[in-house]
Amino acid sequence: MASQIKRFLVGKPIATEQQHQERLTRTTALAVFSSDALSSVAYATEAILTVLILAGTHALGLALPIGGAIAALLAIVAFSYRQTIHAYPRGGGGYIVSRDNLGDTAGLVAAAALLIDYVLTVAVSISAGVAAITSLASTWGYPGLKHAAVEIALLCIALVTLANLRGVKESGAIFAVPTYAFVVSILGLITFALVKDMFYGATPVTHPVPPPVPEVGEALGLWLILRAFAAGCTALTGIEAISDGVQAFKPPEAKNAAATLTLMAALLISMFLGITWLAHLHQAVPNEITHETVVSQIARTVVGAGPAYFGIQVATALILVLAANTAFADFPRLASFLSRDRFMPRQFASRGDRLVFSNGILALGFFSALLVVIFQANEIAMLPLYAVGVFISFTLSQAGMVRRQLRMREPGWERGALISAVGTVLTAIVLVILAITKFTHGAWIVLTLIPVLVLVFQAIHQHYLRVAEQLSLSTAVKPPDLRRHTAIILVSGIHKGVLPALQYARSIAPDNVTAVYVNLDPDQTERLRVRWREWGCDVPLVVLESPFRSLLRPLRSYIAEVQSHYKDGMVTVILPEFVPARWWEHLLHNQTGWLIKTALMYQKGTVVTSVPYRLER
Amino acid sequence: MASQIKRFLVGKPIATEQQHQERLTRTTALAVFSSDALSSVAYATEAILTVLILAGTHALGLALPIGGAIAALLAIVAFSYRQTIHAYPRGGGGYIVSRDNLGDTAGLVAAAALLIDYVLTVAVSISAGVAAITSLASTWGYPGLKHAAVEIALLCIALVTLANLRGVKESGAIFAVPTYAFVVSILGLITFALVKDMFYGATPVTHPVPPPVPEVGEALGLWLILRAFAAGCTALTGIEAISDGVQAFKPPEAKNAAATLTLMAALLISMFLGITWLAHLHQAVPNEITHETVVSQIARTVVGAGPAYFGIQVATALILVLAANTAFADFPRLASFLSRDRFMPRQFASRGDRLVFSNGILALGFFSALLVVIFQANEIAMLPLYAVGVFISFTLSQAGMVRRQLRMREPGWERGALISAVGTVLTAIVLVILAITKFTHGAWIVLTLIPVLVLVFQAIHQHYLRVAEQLSLSTAVKPPDLRRHTAIILVSGIHKGVLPALQYARSIAPDNVTAVYVNLDPDQTERLRVRWREWGCDVPLVVLESPFRSLLRPLRSYIAEVQSHYKDGMVTVILPEFVPARWWEHLLHNQTGWLIKTALMYQKGTVVTSVPYRLER
Question: A interface mutation test: which of B348, B503, B525 has the most A CBs within 10 A?
Fold first, then answer.
């Protein structure tokens, strides 16, 4: 039954030979790889304003210079990543570049940071997408929908998880429509607004319920400005995606990828700055009470609450869901790399029925759903945890590139090393700013979790090394024939289910079979003795005493006694086990067999075998 | 490690032969069996007032006649149960009497009702005990303690569960102190108050925060009076306890038990009527805001907030905890009867390390904790669910007695049958009143749950009957020697862990061993073939193709092929399995072995055996 449900949800298995990789043109590649980066336009400006408003409305104007600084940073990082693309045409994610050039630990730190960030990408993007829809609903007279935000977000995560378990092809068409719709609608909104404002002046945003503004705000000092800057740095998340997937481009891969990266950065910068500028012109303010997004405020003020507004909100929601979908490709892939290198459980490296890394997909779905529940689908509250991981990965990855260029000294390496070095220093500084300003707001969780994860990765690695060493055949000798093999049938009574076990025992150890019964009730024991004479097939019956009603203790000492007689012998403990016809009926029987197997797992020279007697009904 | 924690919490195992039953005098028996019944004095009056206040303060006077009616009912039921004691000197709980005289279904309905009621007894009594303590704390200036009521209640349940898992002896002394302290303090309070009021007049209760009284109340009609009566009927819970435990009395058992029952009923009636009378004189009103109990209001008004008041509150809390403890004896015992009669999983009939029915104790602890959380430790809110079950059991049990007396026609049967018949009719009427008036307030949950439980009991019973029939030796024939036994070693590679499996396979099926490998990657397969030539111990290697990366499908068809050659043969699938040295390391390996075992569980003529290779580190 479980198997049928799985078939229905996930679909039929796909044959290994059908695995192939679609090669993408620049246009489709932009759609496939940029949804994560571009979608941050939906919340980055709001994140800056949410911090600045703490000092009062007069501070909101600072969003413009802060946005400019972030745009400049973004341009430098993008430029630096073009180098990675050329150096790692087979794909150079943060883990690979860092491990390759800076060693295992750096690689693991980058990997831990990225895994955490992918989980956050899903939680933040889905929550922001739901916020776009609830803002739309609220404007159109359904303010109650925001109370169902958590449920809607969980449903979206479940659907995206399922779609990925089915193994949706990274088909350009599916991605192209929402991505380009988002780019067109946001750039259209910005152009239209700038033209309209030029002629008619900018009308301020009106709120159905006015946003609460602190009467005595925080002081507007360097600290608040740095915090606002740090909050806006979420705009940079996802910019590394293209460097991970160079292999997916049509040849010349590296050249096409680099060009696409440049185009993506240009689009992202114009959209981010445009929205920030419009938020300033129209005095948009984050509204804690209505939970209406800043983009929604701007859009309905500029184009009215009509179909154009509807289009913008839907496109925003769709690209955010796509951004989450990107993480569902990235997380399982990175987990499979770590698993292949024996830093994560090997289950993450095996492809499921549908050729996808199912375990990674399930893990990502589970942890992002957990985050959504904990943070009640409030993406702005999650942002302090976000971005820290990305910047750790940026810094390590670019530092790795500097190291590589210094080592390889390929033609023109001086210029490349310089660019990477500037990128490293800048992202490192931003990382420190992020870590300090966001520390108490949640970044501490990420900064504690990363070293813990690295330690876990290393413990797992040590384990796999130990196993490989112990299993190695280099010190092995071919086993001789067994000197003696004894079978012990553990019976709890005499019934039809015992007979096949007796037959089996006599077949595997013809001359050495004993039946063992643990005496829990003298009357029952006596009855068993009598019936055993008739049905025991001449197998001798040994009754063990158990004053404390334990099965295991007397059994263990009996096995030890048998083994003490014959060195290098083997004992098979045979459990007659009847298999019920229905799954729920398993619950109605003592799980004694399972307990005995677990308990004897570490007992030397012992094998435990259940001989099933299958009930028909 | 898990085993050490268990030893610390539960204690060392106790030998079977140490089981014995302490015989009780009337004095200690009263203490042991009456805590559940007597403790209802702590909340029954309040339950009546909580309903009457809905019609305004003028309705509160009706508590007196309603209390009188309940007291009369109580006397009749107690009188009727004296008959059960004489008829079932080995113990006659609702389940046994109903099943014995009215058939299986009636017995199961009574059992389901009682099991639900025991869970409610724990939840209600512990919550009421906590309320006594928080009322005390509030009077003495710590009103905040009531916010921790749920946590305190859960802690109490955990402690009582643990104490019962350890197997506290039903030692008279432990029970005698709080029970008699409660009886003395409540009777003392009543006497003192009546005398004092006669001389000085009764001072009304004052409230730190006045209780909210509805300005426009409900109409004071028959409906509200019936609801108030139904609410007060919780005073009858626990009255059947003595009839369950006749065996525990010193001989003559039945006579001593009947006398104790009469005494208990007399005490209960005087205490309940006394408190109801005092509540009327002192105008005590349930207070939703302070959550102070009515008994606490009366006590501090009469004796002042001094040490006497402290004593009353602590005695009340203690007897309520004891009442919960009674359910921890009743529930596991009833579950073990049901399990013995094959209506519940057999796990409920086995005694744990400490000679107690551990699974029943754990189940009761779990479900009562769940109720406390759902109802936020508010015992008054739980009362509508309570009592319905008790009255179902009363009615069935007494109807069973009528049937029995009509059948047996022992000397004086006419009088006995009459008493039982009057009891049956009265409790049946009250049951209908309870079911109707409390239906929407929660009784529907119980009334739905009972038939569901009965159906589950019956399904379980059918299962056990089917199993017994299929396992019966009456149609069995002694098995002949196995005609052919084939061993198949499933290998995933060649390493040290495979060698003991090869050795074992050759020992159990000397001439019929094959190694099977599923081809998932042609390169690896080729490498295996080469190494197998050196290490395979001359066992032939069969490579199976698997286009969908499934292990099971090719393995299954291979087994089917082998079996098609030899009818009546047996196939052992041997899995070389290495056992990690640390428990957490199990998580790091594919659970393939487990999957294969589960999948082949229903495959005829197949045994799956893991041959362990134990890693040292």
Answer: B503
